[in-house]
């Protein structure tokens, strides 16, 4: 559905842009094909409107939870994206490191080791952009 005619998708798209940035969302939109369109609609409507748009947790808290889940499940590409989002949502590098230290205990040292490597790369890239 077109965002202009679907207020739920439009609201989810606004949250997605606020958390992930315009460049990421524009790339995702540009890469959308007829095959992936329904998936993009699902992500925008459910993840970004129905979950990230809920008032029960602020975006900083949602970033903390998301980082942990991505480390636990080994979703490295998504982890890199959400390290960027965590920074945009106000988490400091020290807070991100604390989350990753916590994952070492509950998700395993190898998972945290990979996460630290990915986060360090992303944070250096972000510092280079500023």
UniProtKB/TrEMBL annotation:
<dbReference type="InterPro" id="IPR029032">
    <property type="entry name" value="AhpD-like"/>
</dbReference>
<feature type="domain" description="Carboxymuconolactone decarboxylase-like">
    <location>
        <begin position="38"/>
        <end position="120"/>
    </location>
</feature>
<dbReference type="InterPro" id="IPR003779">
    <property type="entry name" value="CMD-like"/>
</dbReference>
<keyword id="KW-0456">Lyase</keyword>
<dbReference type="Pfam" id="PF02627">
    <property type="entry name" value="CMD"/>
</dbReference>
<protein>
    <submittedName>
        <fullName>4-carboxymuconolactone decarboxylase</fullName>
        <ecNumber>4.1.1.44</ecNumber>
    </submittedName>
</protein>
<dbReference type="InterPro" id="IPR012788">
    <property type="entry name" value="Decarb_PcaC"/>
</dbReference>
<dbReference type="InterPro" id="IPR052512">
    <property type="entry name" value="4CMD/NDH-1_regulator"/>
</dbReference>
<dbReference type="GO" id="GO:0047575">
    <property type="term" value="F:4-carboxymuconolactone decarboxylase activity"/>
</dbReference>
